[in-house]
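Chapter review: from sequence to fold.
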Amino acid sequence: MALLLPVLVTGICLFFTYHIYRYLQNLYLARSNGCLPPRRYPHRDPFLGLDFFFETGKIFSENRYLPELLARYKTYGPTFQTNLFGTPSINTIEPENLQAVYSSDFRSWGVEPLRLPAQDPFCGRGFITTDGAAWEHSRALLKPGFNRANIVAGLEGLGEALEKMMNKIPSDGGTVDLQALFFDLYLDTSTEFLFGESYGALSNSSSKESQAFMDAFDHAMFGSGFRIALGPFKFLYRNSKWREACKITHAFADRYVQKALEYRQNVMSGASQDYKADNNDISHFTSRNKPLLYHLALQTSSPLTLRNEIIQTLMAAQGTTAALLSNVFFLLARHPAVYAKLRQEILALGDDDEPDFDRLLHLKYLQNILKETLRLHPIFPQMNRIALHPTTLPRGGGPHGTAPLYIPMGTVFDTSAHVLHRQPSIWGPDADAFNPDRWDADPDRDMRWYYMPFGAGPRACVGKWKALGEAAFVVVRVVRRYGACESRDGREWRGRVMLTSRNLGGCWVGLS
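The token string follows.
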């Protein structure tokens, strides 16, 4: 006991000495680079920032996060600093800073220290949780599955599922929640795309095993997000149900991984033609329609890698296009003139009920509507990074916010597409209004750092063109069939934010 006290005192002294040294070193480096500190959030707890953490948790639980985020930026400006469990966090929507983090200084920023420690028990190492060479390897594995040929091949299956969905829409113009139907549609098509088997939500044919998997997956994903929010205190999340949910998710995914590895073995042994096997339950897969997991299996034989990547892809795909489509029809139902103009463009296609992929992406007014919907309601409203080593940001320092910022290693970077997309300085005085025609005002303007619904730079969403192509396909089919779309819900759009954002009230409309 007598020896313990000197050791403890020495440890405390070393801790404070180290932090004082780091502070003085950072101060010197900041001044030598002409950097000035940013505006600071007025914390009541200046040490750990627990006031900010609990306040944010409260507004999350009350589904007030997005309007409160707008209010914070309006109050504290386009760049301000908060304290996140003792770690500085730079909150910014300045395009110059976004360009630095996502492109020109991309290597200085990452996600692994933020995400992997919290999510490792659920989804391991993959394209969502890693940086550097590991991330590059994951990205290279996924990219072939999202090429143009595979996206086009998937439209046939999407069309079949969409017919099932539209059969659930009342033929008499009765009220329906399109958001619920779109989420069922994409639950079916996403599981088909990833695993090769549809969940069966639209046909009410999902197995008990599939239902248990999706329940476990949702619980595991929520718990992983909560562990990220807890930061260094993630160890406090001791939830046996979460651990069990991770195990159920793994067991379900592993069953399909095993099938994919059997497919790989068949291909590699030369017993297949056009990637087709003859005597097992994967005989219906060809190079044109095989699921993403089978594309991955042709590139790696690691069961753990396959499981991690497919779970992370399901996380990224979970409801994203469904939320986009729900928001599109939520807005169209409130703007009948826009719906009528869009329908005119679609009917001008003639009898081409299913225009090809390239033509879908060149329907100008439809693309304007998709862009405007993603501007007002980005599916990923907030994005973050962490500084992997000391660096700088070009703006945000000093009394006028024009000086560069010095960024110590470990600083968290937070930005919000929701706030960025509603800035009057970028979008004009009607920034909060739905106006698809705004995209015709200056079509040649470079919007990369003003409009970021899919992120930007090397880590931009690999599924961007799949999402946009499929959304256009669905809109064309629905609008062609129904002459009018009427809102049946007077409530304003209210965001429910988890990993993605969706309308809390759904999309209640009448189609006739």
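Two observations follow directly from the output. The two ends are 81 Å apart (CA to CA). The first helix runs from residue 4 to 32.
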